Amino acid sequence: xxxxxxIADTRENRSYLGRKNVLKYSHKxxxxxxxxxxxxxxxxxxxxxxxxxxxxIKNNEKNVRYCAIEANYQMASNLSKRGHRLxxxxxxxxxxxxxxxxxxxxxxVIEHMPTFQQAxxxxxxxxxxxxxxx
Length: 134
Known about the structure:
Layout: H1 5-12, H2 16-34, E1 42-46, H3 52-58, E2 65-70, H4 73-81, E3 85-88, E4 103-105, H5 116-129
Parallel strand pairs: 1-2, 1-4, 2-3
Helix pairs in contact: 2-3
């Protein structure tokens, strides 16, 4: 089984109410982020999964730039087909340059780190890729 295929399968089989709940949460998160975003903002999402937040960011009036890092080929392929900029990679480390992003988002990701040390490294990578004041 490929990396995180069990998560991809679960998300595709999510109930109507489950999907509606995740979509509602994604809209709430975007509304919080949107107060701090502008046309020059560059957002990095780690582990976007099915990409509900990615779609919301892509379709906002500010035309925020978005990039994602996803470890699962199936989920990455689905996002890429919808026009999202995507890096297929396992993390940490993040295969992106330092001090580059205004916002880093990682929802339900850190708990999947196999060791405490990798969780610390993940947090450090989030900080590394953020611009000053990000």
